[in-house]
Design goal:
Oligomer: single chain
Largest sheet: 9 strands, mixed
Order of helices and strands: HEEEEEEHEHEHEHEEHHHHHHEHEHEEEE
Helix content: 25-40%
Structural class: alpha/beta
């Protein structure tokens, strides 16, 4: 669709953009409305990909609230008539302008919000003494951003968007599912990557993992249970040697195609008497890894959150980044996330001795569950209005265990029956959290993306095809670039298949070519890292 701005001279568009500072919106003040030329610096290192009008605003639906948002609208006839809203990550606190710019480069009017947690202090610490901010983070910020952005677009262009899309991963995936559940009429299509939708269960996972690695007896100031990166690499190599190529993948892969069928006991690497300690793991380390695989359970034995899959823990974007870090005094990102969830959000404190906590916490986290969990399996209204939902995750995700998203999908199926007509899940073998990892990890999902090709290679184009033309995605072709750099060329490609199918090698084609693989039935659905029904989906 051609934009109305096609007929507006650049000087007139500039004036019309600047006049948006006077726009009246509920509980909202427009703080900036400025035009930018293509290539002009907008924020930090982010440049305007095309000529655009940038509008920033702040919404205050409560005395605690300070929700910042931005919406960028392409000018000079570049708008495709559609709207894309970008989800956040972690406990938010910033507006991801680089992602807005990427959407605008594709013709979208695009918006994002800081979820009201820019502080100071930044992130979850904003919750301390400000209960209204938790509601903003949970769902109110994305709703205000949606409504305000659409109103601004209409005022500036004279038109409402033909179609609206939401895309996010991690906390953005939580927000994506929140949109489908709480605001089913706001978006025609939604992409939910590695969703943190069971935020309470994820918080239990963070606590469980840090206690598994860092609590208990110490030797020379180092927890006996701590597993350094060289031992993670040792274990990962053993996993690959045991399971690779037996799960529909290729024997030369550096990752597992379907880790759910891999039965690996870390005890096989336990040190024998007199063995060089550099070549094995201690009993305490074995126990810690077993806990990471098992996932947190409460005292009644209920699964609170799935465990992590074996096989790619040595990749820098996996266990080193999220779990073990570089040392026991500088562990992975989950340490800071544990502080954010338990100390800031649950207890309302800046710090707390969480390594000493027990796991009986249901009552303490009830408010967070009500505000921020997006676990409602009834998507009837979203389906009825014609909405389409694509969900994805990496099997090597060491931030949010990949079975969590599948457990939600299974719960939706148990409530609604077959949902393939509007909801499909694609699992990426060897992909880390949202992107990265040794497997095929680029399919329009964020970092290291190559040129947009078509609906077969790009999530958003696949979603557009489904929403606008009724053609559902039967596979998404994912690419692994050399060193995850598109400029260095393609290392391999694989099709991602709609769950419960997996990609299977045909045993005779080139292993780097996606045409050598086809979507086939998975060999089983009994993942040792996901035993029992996850508490949030009971």
């Amino acid at each position: 669709m051609a934009s109305i701005l096609l007929q507006i001279e650049p000087s007139a568009a500039t004036s019309k953009c600047a006049n948006l500072t006077g726009l009246s919106l509920p509980h909202t003040k427009v703080t900036l409305a400025r035009s930018y030329r293509a290539g002009e610096m907008v924020s930090g290192i982010t440049k305007a990909p095309v000529g655009l009008c940038r509008i920033a605003g702040t919404s205050k639906p409560s005395n605690d609230s300070n929700i910042n948002f931005e919406v960028w609208i392409p000018t000079n006839g570049r708008w495709n008539g559609k709207y894309e809203q970008i989800g956040n990550g972690g406990f938010a606190g910033t507006i991801w302008v680089s992602y807005i710019a990427a959407a605008v480069s594709r013709g979208y009017a695009a918006a994002a919000t800081d979820d009201g947690t820019s502080g100071p202090p930044l992130g979850a610490a904003t919750f301390i003494g400000h209960p209204g901010v938790l509601k903003d983070f949970g769902y109110r910020a994305i709703k205000f951003t949606t409504d305000n952005s659409k109103a601004i677009i209409k005022r500036f262009t004279g038109k409402t968007p033909n179609h609206s899309y939401f895309s996010g991963c991690s906390d953005g995936g939580r927000e994506a599912l929140m949109e489908a559940q709480r605001y089913p009429n706001d978006f025609d299509g939604i992409i939910a990557g590695s969703p943190a939708n069971d935020l309470v269960g994820l918080g239990a996972s963070f606590l469980w993992n840090m206690q598994a690695l860092l609590a208990g007896p110490q030797t020379h100031g180092v927890p006996d249970a701590y597993v350094p990166t060289d031992k993670i690499t040792l274990l990962s190599k053993l996993v690959i040697s045991k399971c690779v190529g037996k799960d529909g993948g290729v024997s030369t892969d550096a990752f597992l195609n379907d880790p759910t069928i891999c039965r690996f006991d870390p005890a096989i690497a336990q040190c024998a008497a007199g063995q060089n300690p550099d070549t094995c793991v201690t009993p305490a380390q074995v126990e810690a890894v077993e806990k990471l695989y098992r996932g947190p359970h409460n005292s009644e034995g209920l699964l609170l959150f799935p465990g992590y899959e074996p096989g790619t823990g040595s990749n820098a974007t996996d266990w080193p980044e999220w779990l073990v870090g570089t040392s026991s005094t500088s562990p992975g990102s989950q340490y800071a996330m544990t502080t954010a969830f338990w100390c800031n959000a649950v207890l309302g404190k800046a710090t707390c001795p969480f390594l000493d906590f027990n796991n009986e916490f249901e009552a303490a986290t009830q408010t967070i569950a009500q505000m921020a969990n997006s676990t409602n399996p009834d998507l009837t209204q979203f389906r009825r209005r014609g909405g389409k939902l694509i969900q994805y995750a990496g099997w090597a995700d060491a931030a949010i265990a990949p079975e969590n998203g599948l457990n939600y999908y299974r719960k939706v199926e148990s409530v609604m029956g077959d949902v393939h007509d509007f909801y499909r899940v694609f699992m990426a073998p060897g992909m880390a959290h949202c992107y990265g990892g040794p497997g095929p990890n680029s399919f329009g999902n964020g970092r290291s993306d190559g040129p947009v090709i078509d609906a077969k290679h790009d999530l958003l184009k696949a979603l557009e095809m489904w929403v606008e033309r009724g053609v559902a995605p039967n596979k998404i072709i994912a690419t692994k670039y050399v060193s995850d750099d598109p400029a260095k060329g393609i290392a391999l490609q694989r099709p991602l298949c709609p769950y419960p199918q997996i990609s299977g090698y045909n045993e005779h084609g080139p292993t780097s070519d996606q045409s050598s693989f086809e979507c086939v039935a998975a060999k089983g659905d009994d993942d040792p890292r996901n035993r029992g029904v996850q508490n949030a989906y009971r």
